Amino acid sequence: MIRKSLLAFFVTAMMATPVLASSGSSSKPLAGTYPIILSHGLFGWGENSGGIISIVNYWGGTDDYLRSQGATVYAPAKTAANSNEVRAQELKAAILTYAAATNYSGKFHILGHSQGGLDSRYMVSNLGLSSRVATLTTLNTPHYGSPIADIIKTVLPGWIQPFVASIVETLVKIVYGGTNQQNALAALSSLTKEGLASFNSYTPNRTGVKYFSYGSFITIPDLIQHPLMGILHPACAAGGLFQGQGATNDGLVPLSSQKWGTWKGGPSYGILTTGVDHLQVSNTLRSGSFWYDVEGFYMNMASNMKANQ
């Protein structure tokens, strides 16, 4: 009887050991995290976009990296150029369609880059989705406006703005494809200091949703590390000083304008890196991978989401 009991014990132990080892080795840091929605910015695109632009990944592979760490990630497309309100409607429709297709009835985490943070805020505050969102994280979002948007509106005379907008919209349709109605002027107005002051007045934070913000800035506007944003940086700095937002910026958005909810800071980088600009922080076209630890930064943001769900 004793021998049979001992034999049974050893057989059970031998069978259980590999199962436990496998379970431990297959555990991923983001397993169990609510699905993460990536909301792209102005002139951005998603995983279901068409046109020439769909050849490359807006998020530079960070979506796939988060998936490899156990997260469920969805990066929907919205109109490339339109108001916060219109893009919010599109984001809501995309999320609900995704939830229905995957038979998911729980909550989401949202990460919005640039204008993607604004349309996400509007969706949560005004389109009835606050009960489906656990955290809303914004990344280099112009919560209080972008001086570049104000400069463009000031420099371009009113009579020529519709003409320039039509050219931009035509180019966007060619590059992005699709049938969405572009509205460059509405997008521009949505990003000015005045436009954001009005937007914030009717887009309050919702109870039950945790708001976090991350951001970055350029330390030296050299054109090697920042070929596009380095050109815009001086104008953004001058405009930021004029508007009382400070000179520190990422090429498009003052650092002071990036802060909303609980401020969490930005990515870390070596002494040879002259800051992280507006495109590098989202790793668009993989522009940030060479200059800072993109995967580590996105893991930090996703881990914060998981800790607050």
From TrEMBL:
Domain AB hydrolase-1 positions: 34-167
Protein's name according to its UniProt entry: Lipase
Organism: Leptospira yanagawae
Signal sequence coordinates: 1-21
Protein origin, superkingdom: Bacteria
Xref: InterPro entries: AB_hydrolase_1 (IPR000073), AB_hydrolase_fold (IPR029058)
Keyword annotations of the record: Signal
